[in-house]
Design a protein that fits this description.
This protein is an alpha/beta fold and 274 residues long. The chain has one domain: Aldolase class I (TIM Barrel, Alpha-Beta Barrel), CATH 3.20.20. Helix content is 51%, strand content 13%. The protein has 12 helices and 9 strands. It has a 9-stranded parallel β-sheet. Helix 8 links the parallel strand 6 and strand 7. The longest helix is centred in the last third of the chain and has 27 residues, at 247-273.
Length: 274
């Protein structure tokens, strides 16, 4: 059983929804990332999504673009990110870790080399924004061979033929982007999300995570009623942005934000599963 399967099976048994925080590796500085990962798990994170810094993150809004810039000032590379996961795994062998990023750094490292090294480091899944299923015929089997689940983004406009394709090729969980636009944008319509999730469930048994537009405990709790996982990114990155030189405050505030979300989500779990 993979870490993902184990994690989601346990949560289902408990009638709870996964909390998946996103941070960019190396932001604000490389030495902060691993302690921050542990802080997030202590605060209630079930899965960690770790951004691989990239110079042109086109699916991301200004908040995460700036996070990538801050990480790249320290030359945080894919090599460094894999080392961070290895370091995290020394004391945490349970929490699934997803690398989220773009194809270019993986291509530069070499697909097979990356897959082997990611597996050795303890990575569980890879979400490559600019690798659609149609173009992944060589890469995706390689990932699978090395125990890496390919996690795909679905949007409000994803057509059924694509849903079928993703259901066949995807692993770990499916990531539903609840808004049209970039990360950190607009407000959330939970009823529309619920309706769309019902539709997607016809095509796949994989757990369904929802991200984009989760800003606080209230929105996390609303989404937790209809999804298997709640993904939060920009709200955490903003905490780093305003406390960029104060590691202790970053840890405390991100920990508190996630603990509030976890608590609100758990209070709501009875209304979803009851």
């Amino acid at each position: 059983m993979s870490r993902f399967e184990d994690c989601f099976a346990q949560l289902k048994q408990q009638g709870r929804t996964a909390l998946i925080p996103y941070v960019t590796a190396g932001d604000p500085q490389p030495h902060v990332t691993v302690p921050l990962m542990h802080t997030m798990v202590e605060a209630g994170a079930d899965v960690i999504e770790l951004g691989v810094p990239f110079s042109d993150p086109m699916a991301d809004g200004p908040t995460i673009q700036l996070a990538c810039e801050r990480a790249l000032v320290h030359n945080t590379s894919l090599n460094d990110v894999l080392s961070m996961v290895s370091e995290f795994r020394k004391t945490n062998t349970k929490t699934p870790v997803v690398l989220m990023g773009y194809l270019n750094p993986i291509e530069v490292m070499g697909y097979e080399d990356f897959a082997k090294r990611a597996q050795a480091a303890g990575v569980d899944g890879v979400l490559t924004v600019d690798l659609p299923p149609e173009e992944g015929k060589e890469v995706l089997p390689l990932f699978k061979q090395h125990g890496l689940d390919s996690i795909f983004l679905l949007s409000p406009t994803t057509v059924d033929s694509r849903l079928k394709q993703v259901a066949q090729l995807g692993g770990g969980f499916l990531y539903y982007v609840s808004l049209k636009g970039v990360t950190g944008a607009a407000t959330l319509d939970v009823n529309a999300v619920a309706e769309r999730i019902r539709h997607i469930r016809q095509f796949s048994d994989l757990p369904l995570g929802v991200g984009f537009g989760i800003k606080d405990a209230e929105t996390a709790a609303q989404v937790a009623r209809v999804a298997d996982a709640v993904v939060v990114g920009s709200a955490l990155i903003k905490i780093i942005e305003v406390n960029v030189n104060d590691t202790q405050t970053i840890m405390t505030k991100i920990g508190a934000t996630l603990a509030d979300m976890r608590s609100a989500m758990d209070k709501n779990s009875s209304s979803r599963h009851g």
